């Protein structure tokens, strides 16, 4: 599939290589030819124990950490971020400190700040006000190390307010920060009915990261109907030069699912 573009790939190890424990996935990805990886929040709490953080950082031997989510709450229970969650400000602040500490040790320079669901009984405008405060604070901290934040529209989460690229860009416009950008996940945007062609023609200058999975199904390229290759070619031709995160549910297993991607295209020097 990737013959038409030369964008580098990064393996998301919170969804790939789940055949092995999380701390063994970087080694598995390295053995499969990847040099660059990304993760959702790799801990169960906003403030993991020091030895948990040390073990995670040590597990990255031989690969480069390119992206990391801030703590997003209980994802399995449907929580999707704390950026706008009134009452959980301390958890967001704590996970920001932890993430920056990991960045200092690994060179990671991109953080996914999941916006958070709408909460029963809370005024959406007040949630958005809190999100602005949190994003400003995180953007300041990221800027000190030359890093970016990315905002991601999501599918399958009815209470999550960012569903299209335009939804996220509206937040970016309101915030006015150069280092807070759009995470364009082709799967989520397609499932939500967004115009993927507009990523290259309308939103290119706002994109900080791209992720892929086929739709329907959220499996590897070739299992659904998305022209993933065509969209990546358009993005590169329009000027996008960043990473493409591989963030799909592999079928039947990770190694077999990667047959679409030649091993020579999985890593970079």
TrEMBL record:
Keywords linked to the UniProt accession: Isomerase, Pyruvate
InterPro entries xref list: HyI-like, Sugar_Epim/Isomerase, Xyl_isomerase-like_sf, Xyl_isomerase-like_TIM-brl
Chain ranges of the Xylose isomerase-like TIM barrel domain: 27-263
Active-site residues annotated for this sequence: 152, 247
GO molecular-function term, one example from the UniProt record: hydroxypyruvate isomerase activity
Domain of life: Bacteria
Single GO BP term: glyoxylate metabolic process
Family stated for the protein in its record: Belongs to the hyi family.
Protein name: Hydroxypyruvate isomerase
Organism: Amycolatopsis rifamycinica
